Amino acid sequence: MRPPLTILGAGNLGTTLAIILGQADRGSLLWTIEEDVAESIQKKRNNFRYLPGETIPDCVEVTTDLQVAVHGAEVLCLTVPSHIVRKVARSLSPHVSRDQILVDMAKGFDPETQQRMLEVLEQEIPVERRPALVAVSGPSIARELVRGVPTAVAIASESPRALERARELLELPFFRLLPSNDPAGLELCGALKNVLAIGCGIADGLELALNVKAAILAVGLGELATLAEALGARRETAYGLAGLGDLLVTGLSPQSRNRTLGEQIARGKSLEEIRKSMVEVAEGVSTCAIAHDLAKKHGLNLPILDGLHAIVHRGADPRSTLESIFASLSA
What we know:
Blueprint: E1 5-8, H1 12-23, E2 28-31, H2 35-44, E3 46-47, E4 51-55, E5 60-63, H3 66-70, E6 75-78, H4 85-92, E7 101-104, H5 117-124, E8 132-137, H6 142-145, E9 151-157, H7 160-170, E10 175-180, H8 183-205, H9 210-230, H10 241-252, H11 257-266, H12 271-277, H13 284-297, H14 303-314, H15 318-328
Helix pairs in contact: 4-5, 8-9, 8-10, 8-11, 8-13, 9-10, 13-14, 14-15
C-alpha cells in the first residue's frame, strides 16, 4: 500500500522532510522531475545534488511521474521554489481531488502576479477538485532539522480538519507545528523575511559590527509587519515563528542562502555570478523587487526595504546605502 504522504519536490527541504519522517518509520513518496536525482535516491539512498551525505530511509519511495505521486495520497506537501509553484499547480490540477490536503511550504511570491502561494493554488486549481489548503512556515534550517535539532514552525488553514490531519502526518517529537489562524500572514512573513536576511548578509560582507545587523533585524521586522499588514496579514503574526523566528534563523545562519547572497553582493559579486554558484534559489532576490513594488503601491515609507532594493536591483553601493538608510531612520 502506498504511503499517505507525497512530497512534491526533492530539493533541500523536501528531501529533509522525507528523511526525518522516514527515520520515524513514516514512509512517503518523493516526487522530482530530475531523473538523475530520482536514480540516486533509488539506487544509492542519497540525494547527491541537494542534500549530499544524508542517507534516505528505505521507506521513502521516489517517482518522476506526477500522476503516480498524486493518486491515492491523502496529504501532498509542496516544497518546490515559489517561482515554479504556478507551473506545478497547473500540472497538479487534473489529478487532485477535494478529499486531499495540499500543504504549501514554498516561501515567496509568484513573479508575474505578485500573488501568495495559496492564492496561486486557488487560481490554478478549480474549486470542484481543489484540495483543502494549508500553509506551513517558520525557522527550519534543513541541515539542523535532518540532525534532529528541536524545531518549531507555524501551520495555518481555513480548514481545521485539514490542519489537524496535516499535523498528525508531519509532526514529530522534535519537529513541532504550532497552529495559527493567519494563513496569509504565514506566507507573507515567510517570503518577506528573506529580503531582510539579504541585508544581514550585506552587513556580514562589509564586516560591520553586530549593531548594524541588530538594527536591520529590529527595524526591518517593523517594516515587514507594516507591509504584511497592508497586504492582509495580522500584524502580530510578524512577531511569531513565521516572522521573527524565521527572520532570526535566515538572517544569522551561515547556511542561509539569502544571507550568503547578501554577503557575496557586499564583496563585489554580481547577481549573475552568485546565482550560477548556487544549487538552489535564493528567494529573497525576486521578493525584494516585489516587496518594493507593493510598498510603493500602498504608499508605505520603508527605508530598509527600499535601501536593500537599491543595492540588490539597482547596483547601489552597499556601504554608502546602509549609511543612508541609518541616517534616514526616525521614530
